[in-house]
Task: structure prediction
Amino acid sequence: MSPRVRPDFASIARAGGEDRTIAQIIEHYCLETELARRLKMSDRPARRKLYREVYEELFAKISHHPQHTRPHTGSEHVEAQAGLLRTLVPQGGVFVEIGAGDGRLSIAMAGHCAQVVAVDVTATIADTTAPPANFRFLLTDGTAFDLEDDSVDFAYSNQLMEHLHPDDAREQLREIYRILRHGGRYFCITPNANSGPHDISMFFDRRASGLHLKEYSYGSLAQEMRIAGFASARPMLVRKRKSYRMPLGAARAIEIVTRMAERLPGPSLRLNPKVRALLGVNMLAVK
Result:
């Protein structure tokens, strides 16, 4: 039996700029939820290999996947991220990007840093004339990094944490803590569960059931960071290329108000781009 889309499907599609047919979205959903089930049911050793396999299968079978049809690493997008990071990363420091993809962002940071390391599960470095001398790519199994203890000033990941099995996310956080120097910082950007789901299951379910294996709130991510050993974890409000510290209590209050507002009649706040941007989890942890 084919899954049914949510009653508010049209509103969600409009808000997200989704222009595929319902049949294509159902095809995507059926495959992604099956791949997610494989990851959730597998043990740790199997997941080391499975992460790469499931994404290769997804992108090979779903030719209309947004990864194929929408620009994700255009120069403007990369420069916007780099502009923000240059305000946070100490000049002349060691910068590590986790889940670096083609490495464009790490390469863009090379002029600001003494050393940049792009970490990913697959080696797909961007086609550039030549990577900078202070740039290197590091292959990982998804959680472990071949880097020395206390050797990194700043670590960064964007839209990565939600794709990890919760056990692997905890292991990765401990590994990030290990490689950071005392006082080093980790900036994690991930979708907020309170405005989700944010994967393909947004059209069908109330909670993420696709390859977002777990979506986090400000509170739950701060707790995971503390468990990993970080001295502090502070939400950051990001606007263009600037960031502002926000008390954790204020961020959690925004989440509570949004959840309460969802019970009221009228348009969903989750579909408001400004509300979704405000709820996006931007967390800065300090070792």
Q: What stands out?
A: Strands lie at 94-98, 115-120, 135-139, 152-158, 180-190, 232-239, 242-245, 281-286. The mean pLDDT is 88.
